[in-house]
Each structure stands twice: as structure tokens, then as C-alpha cells.
Amino acid sequence: MIVASSKPQTTLADMLPDCLIHTVLSHIGYKEAARLTILSKSWLQAWLTHPNLEFSVYNFKLIKEVDEILDRYRDKKIPIEKFNLSTFGSDEVVPLIDKWLRIALQNGVNHLEFGYVDFGRTLYPLPHVFTILSAKSLRKLVLKDCDLMQLSLSSGYVTNYCDSLRELCLLGVCLNDNMLQTLVATCPMIVSFTIKHCIGLKKIELRNLQKIKMVSIHIDEKQPIEIQAPTLEHLVCCGLAEKTLMLDIGACQNLKSLKLSSVRISDGFLAQLTSRCQFLESLMLDNIVSKGLEKFKVCESQSLKNLEIRCCSGTTVIDAPNLESLDCVGNEIPVLKTAKTFGPLKHSRLELYSRENISDLWFRKLRKFLFNSNSWSHVTLHFPSCIKIDLENWDPCRGIFAIPQVDVLNVHLIGSLKCPSFADALLWSCHPRKLNLFSTKQMITYFNNLLMYMKNSSHSNPWQYQLKDLRVHKFDLEDLRRQPVEHNERRRIRFSLYWR
């Protein structure tokens, strides 16, 4: 017997307790949470009290909606944990910005982000920044495209320390040196500080930050940087390569990671840094310019474990006996000098973007580099085309048993010119355990047929023994399933070769 019931079926969404629904919604964005309101009335009610608010206001209709939502949060005293407000400059929205920020602060916000976009490049004057900073609930503050130059720094204006703030991020903010020093002095307990593309500063000086762990600085002008922070552990500094970076981090002896990008450094800077910072574990150099003969000297570093060098021309001297990971990326084959104490690496990666005319000399230099360095886990080569290599002036039999070993060799080919000498030069330069070729179907097919011909040929090649246990797989990069590729000729394909 079938009994019909008029009661609606209970779904899994209805069975969840309110506290769990609130937890789920608190981990997703405001717009994403709005889509879940169709599940049940419980989910709708939870969304109406969602603690994370994200608004991008760019027309009059949205201005009215946001104002009504925040009025409801104010009147019902609904807690706000995160408030992200991005507005476009207009006469209608400007009078409401201070009101909305004030409601968020009154409702206990701990993560506040405010960004202002004006196509006339007018920055938003934020007169109540110290009122915002003094909020006891606030832990993180992000300001974008605001003008702090009009603030008064009279003794009666800044009254208390902002002991609650832990993260401060200034993006495209206009401020002078005095305002920066006041902000730093007002927030001595911040753990993370980011200043990116700010205007009006002649010098960036960070002192007396008692708890600071992470600093990220992106500059557009030649601005001296002085950091006196014994507790600092992570530093990122990016600038303009044509500007000389005047960086003083002498009192940062507990530094664990350092990233320098697009800056000039003085002679001996790295040697002094690595010898002084006894806890430095990770160092990244990206597009660094120096005048020294030994441009990048990493010496006497017992703690360094990870080193990454990107687009840095010149000689790199490494004396780091405990180094575990080495990454080299650039347009030129690097020049490395390593100390005798330089041990085997757990991870090593070389990536080269070839922009010059590739010749037999280039492959000679590559082979010499790979042979003189530690064995490399991954080598990635980018070629504009598969070009003919002149092999008349080299002795392919010389050094048969000294071909450098590489775990994985990735080769990216854009062109489709068929040149057997290119494969000869490539496999003469190193012996990969696995070769991944990224190119078109036409080039993949040609390369496959060429290697199979060489494998079965009676003609002796210095590297022919590598093909003894050759196995081949083809992958379509759009679905990555092993399969014969019968798609468009221009589609990118990965072609893998394995040696046992």
C-alpha cells in the first residue's frame, strides 16, 4: 500500500544545523553564498546574516542595494568579519563611503579592504584612517588608491596606539615620509606590512616594529629603503632594474627568506647578506643588476637551502654546503661556480628561453654547463623553431661516455621545420631519463619517426644507446589522456619519451 504525504521532503540541506550553515557560508564569498539561498529558508536566513561582505559598486542601482543591506546590518547589529568595498568615483557614492566604513567598524569588522577607482585618477581622501586603525576588532587593513596627504598629524589627532592591527597593506596610496612614520609608530604590533606602488615617498624607513615577520615593498622610483627589524623573517623587495636599490637590512639578522626583483644592488651586498643572516633559508634573485665582477656571490651560508636565479646575467658563485634546491631561469646559459662543499641537490631546475640564433656552439655550452654542474632534475628548453645545426666542425664521438644526465628534459618547439641535426645536437647535449616534447602534431609525428629510424638504424651515433629501451606516449594537452592524436594540426601536444 502506498501512502501519500502532503509534507515536503526533507533534503540534506534542511537537515544541517544553523551553526554549520553559518560556518559553510563564512568560508565562501558573498555572491557565492547568495546562490545557495535557494536551498531552504535556513540558508536564506544565514545569508541575510552573512559575516563576509564584498561589494563592487559601479552604478546607482548597486549604490541603493548596498546602502539598504548595510542599514539592515547596522539596525540589527549583525556582526561583520570581513568587509571588502570597491567603488567607482561618482557624486552619488562618495557621500556614502564614510557611512559604510563606519557601519563595518561598529559591527566588529576584523578584515577591512577599501579600494577607490576614478578614471580621472583622483585618489579618495580618507580623513578617518586613524579612527579606522583604532578599532579594537580590526586585524587586517588594505587600502587601495587613497590619499592620505591631507591628513593632519597634529598631536591631538593621533591619540592612541593601534594595538589590534596585525596586517597593513597600502596599494597605490599617496602619502609622504612623515605619514608613513606616523602609521608605523601608531601600529607597532603589525606582523605583516605591504607597501606597493605608493606615491609621494622619498624614503621608506621601517623601525620599532616589535612583532613584524613579513615585509613586501614594490617601488617605482629610486627610494632608499632602511629596515631595522630584528624579528623580520620574510622580505620581498621589487623595483626598477635601472634604479639602484639602496637597501639597508643590517638589523635583520633573523631573516629566513629574501626575494629581490628588478633592482640594482651594490658590490658585495649578497656576500655580506648571506654571511650575516645566519638563518637565511630561501633566496630568490630576479632580474638583478650589479657592477661587481663576481656579480652574485652567495658565500659562507650554512643555512641556505633554496636558491632561485631568474634572468641574472653574469657569474654566480655559490658556497652553500646545505643547499637542497636550485632553480635557474633565463635567456642565457648561466655561469655557475660552486665550492667543493656544494653537495647533491634534492631538486634542481634549469629553464632557458632561447632568443638568439641556436648553433652547435650553443649546444656545446649547454653540455659543458650540465656536465660541470650537479645532475639536474628538470631541464626545460624553449626554442622558436627547430633549426638546422651545423655539425661539420664538431667531433660527435668525443666524450661518448660523459654525456650529462638529466631526469626530465622538456622541449618546447614553436616552428615546424624538419631538421635531423637538431635532434642530434639536442640528445648529444644531455641524456634525459624522460623527454617531453611540446609542439604541433606535425612536428611530434616527425620527431617520433626520426627517433624510431635512428633507433633501428645501423649508423652509429654517440647517443644511440639511449634509444635502446625507448617508449613513446602521446598526450593531447586539452584532455591529457594517452591516445593517438588525430586533432587539428595546430593544437599543442605533449610527446613523452621514456628511457629505462
From TrEMBL:
Residues 97-239, 253-329 form the F-box/LRR-repeat protein 15/At3g58940/PEG3-like LRR domain. PANTHER family: F-BOX DOMAIN-CONTAINING PROTEIN, OS02G0105600 PROTEIN. Residues 16-52 form the F-box domain. It comes from the Eukaryota. It holds the Pfam family LRR_At5g56370. This is F-boxlrr-repeat protein. InterPro entries: At1g61320/At1g61330-like, F-box-like_dom_sf, F-box_dom, LRR_dom_sf, LRR_FXL15/At3g58940/PEG3-like. Gene3D superfamilies: Ribonuclease Inhibitor.
